[in-house]
Specification:
The chain has 823 residues and is an alpha+beta fold. The protein has 6 domains: 152 residues, Galactose-binding domain-like (Jelly Rolls); 246 residues, Rossmann fold, CATH 3.40.50; 84 residues, Immunoglobulins (Immunoglobulin-like, Sandwich), CATH 2.60.40.10; 98 residues, Immunoglobulin-like, CATH 2.60.40; 47 residues, no CATH class; 111 residues, no CATH class. It is built from 15 helices and 44 strands. α6 packs parallel to α7. The N terminus is likely disordered.
Length: 823
């Protein structure tokens, strides 16, 4: 009995040990054809030719080219993991130049086989074989994997891996997301539905700001396909929760981290349907895309497709570059601060053109937009430039196609906003930015209408629109908003007259009014335009200023209000205080009578505020009509209660594009999120959550993007020379200068967060002495070596004792240097 119990315990311990070692499926790439030795180990059937290729890779930088003869053939891979029991699926990527049937044949060491066939189409194909179905083989003793091809043709194989089973891959056929209009945000449907039907669009979309194509599709009638690519290597690989690491390997030196995304894009451009226009943000240098991608774009544009480039990213004049704008060298060569050549002045059309006609320039957030310096290519025409002379928008023709370049700093295709939550504007200014993008896409697609809604002109009594070549029974539909985005006139219908312009009167309230006009025929939009107009007010609020920038909840906020009137006036001043849930906290009304200037102080109670932010909403009324209105903010210091679990949502990125935060907030509320981490200070202030402070210091995170270059270059030197001295951290932990930097950074970074009473201060994310899970040894910097020797002296007492313990013969402490991995 004791023997049985002992054997059972031994069995349980062994089982638990195995489970602890590999208790679940995980990604294990076993063939990516980067080494010649790997390719030489592959056996091919008669007539099949194989070789290394850089075309259409999916994991790192290489693929296996397989050319099969008439009747097909096969390749056999024997360098495979022997034990597949803990895995759920076999993954294989194949790019096919023709339709074909491909079979995966598993063989174990006993000689048993399992075969599963797949139909592959021209282009990119992910094959996923569910291992639970391979019941005829012993997954513990696998011997080989054979790929059998039934037809003559050319194929590129890559990314042979074991992994968990991925329903997402099974449904979508890609490691990417499906873009849809299911989540709607407030928007102006400038050209939706569009006369003539949707514009067929292909777009590349940033992982962080891919919502941009959906925002455009809400405003412009599109039939679109979007493929996602990250701006940085880390975001591209780890930017999706459903397939966190499956979008590429990157390799030891992360030289080919966008291979899979590039291959997807090539598939869409080579084998995709006809596109009217291609939308191309400058996420990567133009010449970094494979020739297959650049060549496919060139052919499509030559044949008549439009191309819209956002913040063109040019870096090599040796390849064909379609852009009408070329970024100035100082912006890209790294020798000069790119911000030195950024222009923030207003934009001015250079003449009449469809793209720039009907844009409400006065509605743009001018203090928030940036335009880097660019030069205009020969044969291109500038349609829009800054007051400082920087080109903003230029066009050219190529073959039968039209090309538009928008040179502003972009984010999600519209201009990047420096501070999304603090523009000082209370109306949806982004709708007018999207109108410019939409018109650029329509023109590039050759879809501008014969009917023309002429420039919408502001007049003393309102706005005026002239329509040319309008079809019979067409009409204008007019919406007017005030400076707070409130609708004053909703879908007013005005018949079109060829003889007289349409006149749209101002609403009764003074102040700024935004006119949005669409030319409609049979319910479809032919053209659209917008403008602004202002009605003078008898009384103007010149300032609304809280006397303190922060108060404790329950305390009073003193607010100073200054007014101006050119004549004697009797009015009523109404000041209200809301928390950021729009709950009214207090209201004060004061009758006033004055001429010229006046000042009034009111005190507002913050009792009951539930948010960090409180809004002071001040308006002045004359005879019951609002004459002016202004808002101001005050920060409410909330006591931090930690009496329940926190559900924390991380971001690690810049603020979202304008207009979408309310939708993000709704989704997080559905998830019961309580705390935001690694959001900006302004986003955190305008969001109604607890906070984990974003105070990430220099030098302690696994680097990504530009910061990775130091480590990549360091590794190159070490692997080439074997010299340990080059293995020195960019920020050495034992460097007194670095420690002083950290202290200084922490003082600066924590200060803005103190009012939030954060749950914690987030100093770094995924700290690393190297670069993620890097095997290269660090750090051999002089300061680190000195610190190590001090520790050794304290530990061993002297050099003789160290030599005796280590079995070494050092003659001085300066000789004591640890071995690296090869040693």
């Amino acid at each position: 009995m004791k023997v049985i119990v002992k054997n059972m315990l031994l069995f349980l311990l062994l089982t638990l040990g195995l489970l602890c070692d590999r208790a679940w499926a995980e990604l294990q790439v076993f063939a990516s054809f980067e080494e010649q030795a790997e390719i030489k180990s592959i056996r091919s059937s008669s007539g099949v030719r194989i070789g290394p290729s850089t075309r259409f890779p999916a994991w790192e930088g290489s693929s296996l080219e397989v050319i099969s003869p008439e009747g097909g053939g096969s390749i056999e891979i024997s360098q495979i993991p022997p034990d597949w029991r803990w895995q759920e699926s076999l993954l294989v990527f194949v790019w096919s130049q023709q339709p074909s049937d491909v079979a995966l044949v598993l063989q174990d060491s006993i000689g048993a086989n399992y075969r599963q066939s797949f139909r592959v189409r021209p282009g990119a194909n992910h094959l996923q074989l569910r291992l639970a179905e391979a019941k005829t083989v012993n997954l513990q003793v696998m011997r080989s994997l054979t790929v059998a091809i039934t037809t003559k043709g050319t194929f590129y194989f890559d990314y042979f891996a074991l992994d968990r089973f991925h329903p997402v891959l099974q449904q979508r056929g890609r490691w990417d997301i499906n873009y849809s209009l299911d989540v709607e945000t407030p928007h102006v449907p400038w050209a939706r539905p569009l006369a003539g039907g949707p514009i067929k669009v292909f777009a590349i979309a940033d992982v962080a700001d891919g919502r941009g194509i959906v925002e455009l599709a809400q405003r412009l009638d599109l039939d679109f396909k979007a493929t996602t690519i990250g701006k940085s290597a880390g975001i591209n690989k780890w930017g999706f929760g459903d397939f966190y690491e499956q979008r590429g390997g990157g390799g030891e030196l992360w030289a080919n981290h966008f291979s899979l995304a590039y291959t997807y894009i090539a598939d869409d451009l080579i084998y995709g349907p006809r596109y009217d226009v291609i939308l191309w943000p400058g996420l990567h240098a133009w010449n970094s895309y494979p020739e297959e991608v650049r060549g496919a774009i060139r052919r499509r544009v030559e044949e008549g497709a439009g191309l819209v480039l956002f913040e063109p990213n040019n870096s090599d004049g040796a390849v064909w570059d379609p852009s009408p704008l070329i970024r100035s060298a100082s912006s890209v060569d790294g020798k000069k601060n790119p911000d030195d050549d950024v222009d923030t002045s207003r934009w001015e059309p250079t003449g009449a053109h469809y793209i720039t006609r009907g844009i409400a320039w006065e509605a743009f957030p001018w203090t928030q937009l940036e335009v880097p310096a660019s030069t205009v290519t020969t044969g291109s025409q500038v349609l829009l430039q800054t007051a400082g002379g920087h080109p903003v928008l230029a066009i050219r023709s190529y073959g039968k196609g039209r090309i538009v370049a928008l040179g502003y700093r972009e984010k999600g295709m519209i201009p990047a906003i420096k501070s999304v939550f603090e523009t000082g504007l209370d109306y949806p200014y982004h709708d007018y930015l999207w109108a410019l993008v939409a018109r650029a896409a329509v023109w590039a697609a050759h879809r501008e209408p014969a009917a023309e809604l002429g420039p919408l002109v502001s007049t003393p009594s309102g706005a005026e629109a002239q329509v040319k070549s309008a079809p019979p029974n067409s009409e204008l539909r007019v919406t007017v908003r005030n400076s707070f985005g409130e609708t004053e006139v909703d879908e007013l219908q005005i018949p079109v007259s060829a003889e007289t312009p349409a006149r749209i009167p101002f609403p009764p309230d003074p102040g700024l009014h935004l006119f949005e006009v669409r030319l409609i025929e049979n319910g479809k939009v032919l053209d659209w335009a917008a403008t602004t107009g202002r009605v003078s007010a008898p009384v103007v609020l010149t300032s609304v200023t809280p006397m303190t920038d922060r108060v404790r909840v329950g305390e009073t906020v003193p607010v100073r209000v200054q007014l101006r009137s050119v004549k004697e006036i009797r009015c009523s001043l109404e000041v209200r205080l809301f928390d950021n849930y729009e709950r009214l906290l207090d209201r004060q009304s004061v009758p006033l009578s004055f001429t010229g200037k006046a000042e009034q102080t009111v005190n507002l109670k913050t009792n009951g505020a539930l948010t960090h932010l409180a809004i002071i909403d001040c308006q002045v009324l004359v005879n019951g009509t609002r004459s002016d209105r202004q808002k101001a903010e005050v920060f409410v210091l909330q006591p931090r209660k930690w009496d329940d679990y926190d559900i924390v949502m991380y971001r690690f990125g810049p603020d979202p594009i304008p207009g979408i935060w309310p939708a993000i907030d709704r989704q997080m509320r559905r998830l019961n999120v309580t705390t935001l981490s690694s959001y900006s200070v302004t986003n955190s202030k305008h969001a109604n959550y607890n906070v984990q402070a974003q105070t990430r210091i220099s030098g302690q995170e696994s680097p990504d993007g530009e910061s990775r270059k130091y480590y990549t270059e360091m590794k190159r030197k070490y692997l080439a020379t074997g010299d340990k001295r080059v293995l020195a951290r960019e920020h050495c932990l034992d460097d007194p200068g670095y420690r002083e930097l950290v202290i200084r950074e922490l003082r600066e970074l924590t200060q803005p967060w103190v009012p939030f009473s954060p749950m914690s201060y987030y100093v770094y994310e995924e700290p690393s002495l190297t670069c993620y899970g890097d095997a290269v040894d660090l750090c051999f910097a002089p300061t680190t070596m000195a610190a190590m020797r001090r520790w050794l002296k304290d530990t061993y007492g002297g050099l003789d004792q160290l030599n005796q313990q280590w079995g070494t013969s050092f003659t001085s402490w300066d000789e004591v240097v640890p071995d690296d991995a090869p040693e």
